[in-house]
């Protein structure tokens, strides 16, 4: 079916293109045929004239192709490329062995051959403007947006080292070697001088490892390699741009002076620093804008795209490497994702992916097409030597650079890694586009174009296809994503918790010094400005809510995919069926069951997706937050085995809410809230209602009440009460129960406020000191904090016994 | 706070700790300032409550065990030396094969000592054995899916 579609679209395309010429010729004729139609749509102010009598009958069927030509053809090309992609994935085995870029180029070659035989010109897609202004930005945005920031920043030294120094090494090495080759008269290349060689070399040393990354990801090589290749591919464009502009400039000049080299270095810094600054600037502006968009949720994704595109264009304006706009994407992502709604978040991600895929597909496709249709100059010697030198210099470069930088790394690259890095240096479309945009005054431009095409096709096809079996054969270190023994998983988790705990105990010094500093700056300055509702970093609720929503959405997207616990699949499937039935009222116990299943699986799933960060790094804080939730759950379960599950949620977490406070900090705000809640049992309702309000969100997709109740008590300390109040009836019942229960009753009677835990505590100490209640709040609370901080499992029973005794 | 900390810790103490644990000078001073910031009672020792006041440690499923690891048998206070001694287990392993035979006792961060530390995490009653119940407790604490863990153990 795929091939049928492809051929039909192909035919359509061919029909349109020759048809285009006809239409253009016949346009004057057409205009005489339909003069009467003109007044209708050309001049509106002219009085409507009836068709001239000598003209003939009104044409029933008109075709105005030139009007729609450009968008029509563009759409057809995109469709064709996408059909090709569908076609590839029909046979799954094809994409395993042959990377997609190869297949796209191959299809492009075929189409190009067809077009060439029909003597048609392909659309000028790979012209400089179209490529750099329209096709490249989505790819850059995609790379930046989905960059794994944590491993990236931890390896940033290595990445920059390889990108900058590696590209320089490659360019200069290849350039000089090619120049020496050109000196030999036998090859007929004497007219290419050093500058031109260097320029060409700078073009082809731009590594674009898309195919390599796909393979690495599939196989699951260790994340160090992955991030180095990824980062290198991104950042060496900055160097390439500088070198390219420098050498094209110098190619015109007869002699090269040392001052020019110096200027080149200066220009590199301008490019680098300027790009980063622009990226940061636009990122912050975008984040700041999204702070105010909570009333216009529909256009939130627009800001992300417009700002990043604007940043890109401004960078192009100043001829700064626009690749550094990935900095913009990284900055933007962090703050924007906290400000926008969940739906906008998903939309942004999806659209970025779609745009990037389209761009990539089109680029490779047109690479194939234009290969056939451009003028080539083939010089065996030059091309073969180019290939040879590219290979050699890359290998040498990686070797030397790794030797130098290995001592600075905690995880060394062994020789297999280095081979993988060297072999994964595929060239891609940027190389080609740069070659295409060479100024025409270079007399051997066609040779350069041919050579760059040759090298691209060679690396993509040969290296791209062979990298997979080679990587598997030499057995490069893999990530440990596939540890599927439970024993290993348990103990790994234990060790992670241990390390995490000790690091927290030490206050996370040494390694994370800069990260800590940045974090402090972030909290104090940036988050205040850029985020709409800046809850403190330890606001567990919003993060947990977001994670839970996201995971729930992911889970529903892949019904049978990721679930590993067999019984859960079945029940989840049932739940799904239930969920699909509209407008059904959920029983409380069903909701609870749903939530249990979701949360159990979610914890596991997130463990898997943290593969890149777990092995050598700490689990990041999101896991801590989830641990907090779970600990509360388990404590709740262990303390109240018999009674209703919702009951302790009001009591226990309240006493443990200090866990969410930084030591010694913000007790006042917590106390203020509690103070407000004093005064009568009606306040209990108000308090719990407020708790529900702050937790319930209109976009909670799981519609489960339980988790929100659990979390509310933690959020109580710093909730922004801006969400609509929906106090569902089960909650109020619980509250009433709490009033009547042994807990609530004793502590409520004769006390100033309904809050059980602190009251109970003061009841403990009331025997000693009655005025404790009226004392200065922070000092009164601190010993309480200590008691609360003590093993909560032990504290509670003693409090409970103290409660009735104290009243 | 930093300046006050460094004056309370004498140079020879730093040297001793350095020799015993292998931390560097700056690391020791940093950890000392952390120690004093945790020490609310300002009596030069930490009690369990001081540890439990760290919020992240409190939410850690193994928080209690980690805290217990700092306090040797029967004691309730830990001074700075003890603090550093426990923390020394977490230094990276150094491949000092050359002086392996020369030193009398293995350094605190050797692989064996690390394993011993981890073993003691599991072994709550300190009888040098990990019983089935102790292992079960660990599993529950780290929240592996209940069904799987039970299936694994039976």
From TrEMBL, chain A:
Residues 697-709 have a biased composition (Low complexity). This is Sodium/hydrogen exchanger. Residues 565-668 form the Sodium/hydrogen exchanger regulatory region domain. Pfam families: Na_H_Exchanger, NEXCaM_BD. Keywords: Antiport, Cell membrane, Ion transport, Membrane, Signal, Sodium, Sodium transport, Transmembrane, Transmembrane helix, Transport. It comes from Sphaeramia orbicularis (orbiculate cardinalfish). The lineage of its organism: Eukaryota, Metazoa, Chordata, Craniata, Vertebrata. Residues 1-21 form the signal peptide. Residues 719-729 have a biased composition (Polar residues). Residues 79-472 form the Cation/H+ exchanger transmembrane domain. It is a multi-pass membrane protein. Belongs to the monovalent cation:proton antiporter 1 (CPA1) transporter (TC 2.A.36) family. The chain crosses the membrane at residues 98-118, 130-147, 159-181, 225-247, 268-289, 309-330, 351-374, 380-401, 421-439, 451-471. It is found in: Cell membrane. The gene is LOC115430815. One of its GO terms (molecular function) is potassium:proton antiporter activity. One of its GO terms (biological process) is sodium ion import across plasma membrane.
UniProtKB/TrEMBL annotation, chain B:
Keywords: Calcium, Cell membrane, Cytoplasm, Lipoprotein, Membrane, Metal-binding, Myristate, Nucleus, Phosphoprotein, Protein transport, Repeat, Transport. It comes from the Eukaryota. Its main location: membrane. GO terms for cellular component: cytoplasm; nucleus; plasma membrane. It is found in: Cell membrane; Cytoplasm; Nucleus. InterPro entries: Calcineurin_B_homologous, EF-hand-dom_pair, EF_Hand_1_Ca_BS, EF_hand_dom. GO terms for molecular function: calcium ion binding. Residues 26-61, 110-145 form the EF-hand domain. One of its GO terms (biological process) is protein transport. Belongs to the calcineurin regulatory subunit family. CHP subfamily. This is EF-hand domain-containing protein. It comes from Sphaeramia orbicularis (orbiculate cardinalfish). The gene is chp1.
């Amino acid at each position: 079916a795929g091939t049928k579609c492809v051929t039909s679209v192909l035919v359509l395309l061919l029909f349109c293109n020759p048809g285009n010429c006809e239409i253009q010729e016949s346009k004057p004729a057409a205009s005489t045929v339909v003069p009467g139609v003109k007044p209708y749509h050309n001049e509106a102010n002219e009085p409507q004239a009836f068709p001239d009598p000598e003209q003939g009958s009104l044409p029933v069927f008109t075709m105005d192709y030139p009007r729609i030509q450009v968008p029509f053809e563009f759409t057809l090309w995109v469709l064709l490329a996408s059909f090709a992609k569908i076609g590839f994935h029909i046979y799954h085995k094809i994409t395993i062995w042959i990377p997609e870029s190869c297949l796209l180029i191959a299809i492009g070659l075929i189409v190009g051959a067809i077009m060439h035989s029909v003597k048609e010109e392909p659309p000028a897609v790979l012209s400089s403007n179209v490529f750099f202004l329209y096709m490249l930005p989505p790819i850059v945005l995609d790379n930046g947006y989905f960059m794994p920031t944590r491993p990236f920043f931890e390896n940033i030294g290595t990445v920059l080292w390889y990108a900058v120094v590696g590209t320089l090494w490659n360019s200069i090495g290849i350039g000089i070697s090619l120049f020496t080759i050109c000196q030999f008269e036998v090859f007929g290349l004497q007219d290419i001088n050093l500058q031109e060689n260097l320029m060409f070399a700078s073009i082809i040393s731009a590594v674009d490892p898309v195919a390599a990354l796909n393979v690495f990801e599939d196989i699951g090589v260790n994340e160090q390699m992955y991030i180095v290749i990824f980062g290198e591919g991104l950042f060496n464009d900055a160097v390439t741009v500088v070198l390219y502009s420098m050498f094209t400039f110098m190619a015109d000049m007869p002699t090269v002076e040392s001052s020019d080299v110096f200027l080149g270095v200066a220009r590199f810094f301008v490019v680098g620093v300027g790009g980063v600054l622009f990226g940061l600037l636009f990122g912050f502006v975008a984040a700041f804008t999204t702070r105010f968009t909570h009333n216009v949720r529909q256009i939130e994704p627009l800001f992300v795209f417009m700002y990043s595109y604007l940043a890109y264009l401004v960078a192009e304006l100043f001829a700064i490497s626009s690749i550094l706009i990935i900095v913009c994407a990284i900055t933007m992502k962090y703050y924007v994702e906290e400000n926008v709604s969940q739906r906008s978040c998903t939309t942004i991600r999806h659209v970025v992916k779609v745009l990037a895929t389209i761009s990539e597909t089109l680029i490779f496709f047109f690479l194939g097409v234009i290969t056939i249709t451009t003028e080539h100059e083939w010089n065996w010697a030059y091309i073969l030597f180019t290939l040879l030198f590219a290979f050699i210099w890359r290998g040498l470069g990686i070797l030397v650079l790794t030797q130098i930088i290995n001592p600075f790394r905690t995880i060394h690259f062994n020789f297999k890694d280095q081979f993988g890095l060297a072999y994964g240096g595929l060239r891609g479309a940027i190389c080609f586009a740069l070659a295409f945009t060479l100024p025409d005054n270079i007399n051997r431009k066609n040779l350069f174009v041919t050579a760059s095409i040759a090298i691209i096709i060679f690396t993509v096809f040969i290296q791209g296809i062979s990298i997979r079996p080679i990587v598997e054969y030499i057995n490069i270190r893999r990530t440990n994503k596939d540890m599927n023994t439970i024993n290993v998983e348990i103990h790994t988790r234990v060790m992670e918790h241990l390390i995490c705990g000790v690091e927290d105990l030490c206050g996370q010094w040494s390694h994370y010094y800069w990260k800590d500093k940045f974090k402090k700056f972030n909290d104090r300055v940036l988050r205040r400005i850029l985020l709409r509702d800046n809850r403190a970093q330890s606001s567990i609720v919003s993060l947990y809510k977001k994670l839970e929503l996201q995971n729930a959405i992911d889970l529903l997207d892949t019904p049978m995919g990721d679930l590993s616990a067999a019984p859960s699949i079945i029940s989840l499937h049932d739940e799904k069926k239930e969920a699909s039935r509209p407008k059904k009222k959920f029983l409380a116990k069903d909701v609870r069951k749903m939530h249990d299943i979701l949360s159990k699986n979610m914890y596991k799933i997130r463990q898997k997706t943290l593969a890149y960060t777990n092995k050598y790094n700490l689990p990041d804080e999101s896991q801590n937050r989830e641990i907090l939730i779970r600990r509360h759950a388990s404590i709740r379960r262990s303390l109240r085995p018999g009674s209703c599950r919702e009951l302790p949620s009001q009591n226990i977490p309240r006493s443990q809410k200090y866990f969410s406070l930084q030591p010694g900090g913000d007790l006042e705000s917590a106390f203020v809230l509690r103070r407000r809640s004093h005064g009568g049992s009606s306040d209990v309702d108000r308090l719990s209602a407020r708790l529900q309000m702050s937790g319930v969100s209109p976009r909670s997709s799981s519609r489960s009440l339980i988790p929100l109740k659990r979390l509310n008590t933690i959020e109580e300390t710093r909730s922004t009460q801006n969400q609509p109040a929906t106090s569902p009836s089960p909650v109020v019942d619980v509250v009433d129960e709490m009033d009547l229960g042994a807990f609530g009753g004793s502590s409520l009677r004769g006390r100033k406020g309904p809050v059980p835990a602190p009251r109970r505590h003061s009841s403990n100490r009331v025997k000693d000191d009655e005025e404790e209640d009226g004392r200065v709040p922070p000092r009164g609370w601190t010993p309480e904090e200590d008691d609360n901080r003590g093993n909560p499992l032990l504290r509670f029973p003693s409090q409970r016994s103290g409660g009735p005794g104290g009243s | 706070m930093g300046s006050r900390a460094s004056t309370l810790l004498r140079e020879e103490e730093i040297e001793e700790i350095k020799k015993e644990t292998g931390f560097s000078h700056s690391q020791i001073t940093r950890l000392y300032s952390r120690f004093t910031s945790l020490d609310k009672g300002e009596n030069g020792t930490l009690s369990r409550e001081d540890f439990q006041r760290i919020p992240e440690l409190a939410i850690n499923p193994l928080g209690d065990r980690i805290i217990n690891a700092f306090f040797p048998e029967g004691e309730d206070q830990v001074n700075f030396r003890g603090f550093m001694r426990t923390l020394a287990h977490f230094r990276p392993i150094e491949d000092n094969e050359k002086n392996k035979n020369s030193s009398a006792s293995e350094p605190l961060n050797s692989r064996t000592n690390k394993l011993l530390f981890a073993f003691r995490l599991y072994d709550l009653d300190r009888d040098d054995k990990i019983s089935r119940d102790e292992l079960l407790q660990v599993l529950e604490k780290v929240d592996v899916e209940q069904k799987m863990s039970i299936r694994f153990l039976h």
